[in-house]
Sequence to fold (171 residues):
Amino acid sequence: MSVYSDAKDWPRLIEIILRIAEMVNDAAQVAKYYTTAASIAQVELHRFDEAANYFEHALARLSPDGGQVQFDALVQCLTENQDWDRLERAYETRIERLRGAKAEPKIIASALDARGAVLQHKLGRLVDALQWYEEALELDPDNAERREMLAALYTKEPKRFFREAVRAHRH
Fold:
């Protein structure tokens, strides 16, 4: 592998890494190989879609509440490609895995906020975004910043969200 690395033959190095990964039975070790391949595709080749695929393979082999580094890199790749639909699905998968692992409510709430932000700002789906922001608030009710943000969103469209705006301003 060092021959390909020294020669900067990145595509061939990725190919070798993935072949090795196929021969390994330990999921954590396979995840490391996929993470390495993803990092090369991302940093050296600027192939963000390919890197995202490898990061997803790595995450699938890690514990449901682990892999924050890989997930952050996946988000970076999808953002670089402006693949907002896939980014929203990545957050959906992450949230499901965190829930399944019984992660801390604040961690899940943060992922819900991020999913909501993608829906609101990148996909223009405010109503869907509000659903996730509200769920995040249920998990983390003491988060004043989130409560204020929701109140501001409701207030912008009082005809549509009158009840929610009134409820938000009562807290």
